[in-house]
Every structure is written in structure tokens, then in C-alpha cells.
Q: What sequence folds into this?
């Protein structure tokens, strides 16, 4: 087998999963260019090696590597595992068409697409790599449903600590790895370490990768949307879902030393009639305040909302009338 060389941060994850056994479920939140695919393939190979050391009659000696699509599974991972990491030489046989490697001792490594992962239901999986999970879309389900109803049961029911002891093996494990995409279920998985010590999470930015050129990333930063840069290169979960101004950051943009509104001073109120709660902002030339209001649902009329927001809270200020026509709904903002 070709010598596997990991950089320092990749080695942290592998050490915890396969050497120190400090966790069973690793959640890696990593930027572009970190080497996620190489890390994923290495973890899968190490799991295969563990299984090959067990007796031939041990059941469910399966390793699964799940990518968002079939083309990603086969076009990225098959050549990486078969040729770059040299596992084709150790397999009894392999098939790129099916994305499968068969190893001695009844050990199988299979590349799955997320769309096909429902067919894993009922199988036993010793180790699962879930790659780029924030891109798992469609297939009649989502990441939460796939993980809770299919993937984790494949590990927990066949390779629990109790069952593993019978075979002198380590318990089943999983590596969940992705670039973030807002506060979604991947974010929930990332925070599971706070309530379950069998989980451990890691965050790695572009600065943790020896493969990236900081000068080049600096040029990219000049032209890329700030939130997109934060997501793709600093592995930030921040998204635009609850902000009127989507790049608003409370730590950076709030100055608590500014005086409050003066009596008689013009006050501007902005409302984003979103699909959920109204997003509100009130501001003047020297100050901006953002509020996420849960007071008004779509059951309230727009005029009721405005009367409460503006007239109920800004009685000392003059109010002006604005009209906005938006989308299929004609909205009249009259105060």
C-alpha cells in the first residue's frame, strides 16, 4: 500500500478515531482545500484494515463511504482509494461500476451516493464516512432523516460496544465531514459533543491547510461575498437567515456607547416580510439597531404591525408614509 501522509490537523481526527479511541462519532467542519476527501478515504482504509484483522466468520464487516452523488463517489473516491492509496493491490477484486472493493476475510468497502443510501437500510456497517453532508439533497429525505433512520442504526445495531466485545473488535464509528451551510442539521451534529461524550467536533479553516496559499486566498477574499468567504474558507456556520442586513455582526457593528434617539429626531423603520417572522430594523443616520420580532405573524395585518411598531414605540417622533410594491403581493406601508 502506498504510504499515507497526513498533515497535522488531519492526523488529529485519525488519532482520536483509530489510535486513542476518544470518540465514536467525529464531526469535522472544514473549509475548502483542507483535504477532506483524503482524510475520508484514509479513515475508510484504516477501518478496512481493522476488519481484516478479525476472524473470517465475523459478520457485518462493512465500511461505507457516502458522497452526495454517484459521480462524486465513483469519480473522486474510487481512483483515490484504488490507485492513489494503492488499495486495488490488496483487494481480492474491485469494481468501479459498482464502487465496491472486496478484501480478504469477507471485508467490503463500498462507495455510496446519498441518493442510494436508503438501500443501506438493514445492513450492518462497522465504519461510515458521511462526506459533504450539507450537500445531501433530494432522494425523498434529508440529512436528519438519513442519519437517524438509516445510517446510525446500521452502526449502532450491529457494532455497539456490547456486540463488538464478542468479536474482540472496536465499536462501530463514523466520520461526518463537510463545509458548513448555515445553522442546519450538520450544525446540530457538530454541537452534539456538548451532550454526548461519544461525539467530538473539529473546526478547521483555510489557515489549517498546508495546501493553500494565503496570498491567493487574500485575493479571493477581495472579490467574494463576505458570508460566502466565511463559509467556504473559515468554516463559519453564519448565514443570512435572521438579519435584515445579511452581513450584520453584533460583535462588529454594535456600538453601545451611542446615545438613544433624541425627541423629534427622524426615525426610519424597515420591515422584511419574510416567510417566517418579520425581520425588523430601526435606525437613524448615526445608529442602527436590528431586532428579530416574534410579535407579528401573518395573521396580523400589515397596518396593525406598523401601528404597533412605529406608533406604539415611537410616539414622540414624526411618521412618514411609504409605499412599496413587492412580488405578487402589493404591500402598502402606510403609517
A:
Amino acid at each position: 500500500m502506498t504510504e499515507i501522509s497526513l498533515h497535522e490537523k488531519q492526523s488529529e481526527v485519525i488519532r482520536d478515531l483509530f489510535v486513542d479511541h476518544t470518540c465514536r462519532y467525529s464531526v469535522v467542519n472544514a473549509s475548502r482545500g483542507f483535504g477532506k476527501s483524503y482524510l475520508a478515504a484514509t479513515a475508510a482504509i484504516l477501518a478496512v484494515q481493522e476488519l481484516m484483522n478479525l476472524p473470517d466468520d465475523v459478520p457485518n464487516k462493512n465500511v461505507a463511504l457516502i458522497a452526495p452523488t454517484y459521480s462524486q463517489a465513483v469519480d473522486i473516491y474510487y481512483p483515490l482509494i484504488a490507485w492513489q492509496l494503492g488499495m486495488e493491490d490488496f483487494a481480492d477484486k474491485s469494481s468501479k461500476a459498482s464502487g465496491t472493493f472486496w478484501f480478504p476475510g469477507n471485508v467490503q468497502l463500498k462507495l455510496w451516493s446519498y441518493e442510494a443510501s436508503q438501500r443501506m437500510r438493514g445492513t450492518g456497517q462497522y465504519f461510515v464516512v458521511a462526506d459533504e453532508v450539507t450537500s445531501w439533497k433530494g432522494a425523498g429525505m434529508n440529512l436528519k432523516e438519513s442519519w437517524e433512520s438509516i445510517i446510525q442504526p446500521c452502526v449502532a445495531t450491529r457494532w455497539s460496544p456490547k456486540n463488538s466485545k464478542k468479536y474482540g473488535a472496536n465499536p462501530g464509528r463514523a466520520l461526518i465531514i463537510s463545509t458548513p451551510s448555515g445553522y442546519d442539521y450538520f450544525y446540530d451534529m457538530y454541537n452534539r459533543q456538548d451532550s454526548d461524550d461519544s461525539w467530538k467536533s473539529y473546526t478547521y479553516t483555510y489557515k489549517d491547510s498546508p495546501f493553500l496559499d494565503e496570498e491567493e486566498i487574500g485575493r479571493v477574499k477581495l472579490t467574494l461575498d463576505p458570508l460566502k468567504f466565511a463559509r467556504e474558507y473559515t468554516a463559519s456556520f453564519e448565514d443570512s437567515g435572521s438579519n435584515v442586513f445579511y452581513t450584520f455582526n453584533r460583535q462588529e457593528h454594535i456600538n453601545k456607547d451611542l446615545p438613544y434617539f433624541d425627541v423629534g429626531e427622524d426615525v426610519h423603520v424597515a420591515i422584511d416580510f419574510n416567510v417566517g417572522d418579520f425581520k425588523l430594523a430601526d435606525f437613524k443616520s448615526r445608529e442602527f439597531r436590528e431586532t428579530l420580532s416574534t410579535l407579528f405573524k401573518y395573521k396580523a395585518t400589515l397596518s396593525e404591525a406598523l401601528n404597533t411598531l412605529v406608533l406604539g414605540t415611537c410616539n414622540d417622533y414624526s411618521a412618514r408614509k411609504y409605499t412599496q410594491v413587492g412580488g405578487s403581493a402589493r404591500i402598502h406601508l402606510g403609517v
Q: What stands out?
A: The chain has two domains: 8-214, 250-331. The longest strand covers residues 107-113. Residues 124 and 154 are 5 Å apart (CA to CA). The radius of gyration is 26 Å.
